[in-house]
Amino acid sequence: MSDRYASFARSAGGSVLVKRLGLPNPPNLRRYDADHPLAGPVRIAGEGRFAAGIEGWYPGDGEKLGGLVLDATTLATVEDLRDLYDTVHPIARGLTPAGRVIVLAGLPAEAASVEVAAVRQAVEGFTRSLAKEVGRGTTVQLVRTAEATEPETLRSTLDFFLSGRSAYVDGQVVTLGAPVGPLSQDTLADKIALVTGAARGIGADIARVLARNGAHVVCLDVPAAGDSLAAVANSLGGTAYQSDLAVENAAARLVDHLKDRHGRVDVVVHNAGITRDKTLANMRPDQWDQVLAVNLAAPVRVTDALVEAGLIPAGGRIIGVSSVVGLSGNRGQTNYATSKAGVAGWVRALAPVLADRGITVNAVAPGFIETAMTAHLPLVVREGGRRMNSLAQAGLPIDVAETIGYFAEPGSAGVTGNVLRVCGQQMLGA
Predict the structure, then answer these.
(1) Could you tell me whether strands 267-270 and 192-196 are parallel, antiparallel, or unpaired per DSSP bridges?
(2) What is the pTM of this model?
(3) pLDDT 10s digits, 16-29
(4) What are the domain boundaries of the chain?
(5) Is 358 helix (H, G, I), strand (E, B) or coil?
(6) Which of 178, 224, 305, 425 shows its CA 20 to 30 Å from the CA of 19?
(7) 58, 168, 241, 336: which is the annotated catalytic residue?
């Protein structure tokens, strides 16, 4: 569904009126462009652990600064925090539209003193607030680095956040550690990827992104979506597999299929999900059970079956789809919020368990994304969802897909146990 307000606000007359009335002003977002991954030259600033190692990675073209990577990993005193101000203040108005700011900081839990821990936590407040100020489609992220993190481990994360692929990720925090399994900067060529709920919407875009990055994609959805599923799979040279993962023995049959047809699965994306919205007082037991079965039980059981069968090799990627609703709650969605909060908890708990096998586990948490479902929301609710974020607009299915593509990369071996919001820095909620 088109965003008519955004189109009006970007028009010549509309932009003047929006500015005069102080209305939300949705900027044009910079999305994936293989020929122009950067908005302009990227400056590497700061004197932390990584600045020298990443210098020269992003020469960029153009006169106006397209990105800033500020290495604040060695800040240790309250006075040191002045470096944040001194570095960003002179260029706060000088970034090109849809520019990128990334701040690197150490982990508070690894701090050598209470003051160092406080300083490292303070950097998060700085980045989240700056993200709400910069405007014009520019985004700001915090990358927390463990002591075991090496410069090469940063590469996929910096590439993602500096590029147009991260257009709708703003004001967020990612934690990096030592590589889990093999680390390379290769594409997904020769990899097998499984995407559930792939027949339409976000799932179809996830399949397309993984295929674009080189993977052979096994597209899975329920039999009722068979025609759409086949069309998606055929369009990207993948294969279709029909299954309702909520039924008994579905996981075992999927294991047999993948073992017989492919011998392994390198990337598993648990995207399939449903809603059965009612207030708890009006919700039937089957509406509760259906949502929990599809959204949470199926990812847990399928993953357990794949791991037990040894089908996910070292270097494997497991990616769940949570939701900002699971992190902040929403009226009329107790079943959905419960399931999506469960996905986030499952990812964080499973990541250290599978680290010894060389498998990473992460999740995305989409905010308000333009889909067939949101198109049917009441006008006031829909417009509120679109505007109540730092980018003043809804995201697109491709924004979720690109973030999953980042988690799936062989270069993302140092990224595990993260739940990353794709919400344009939603203003409300925990």
Answers:
(1) parallel
(2) 0.97
(3) 888 888 889 999 99
(4) 24-176, 192-422
(5) coil
(6) 425
(7) 336
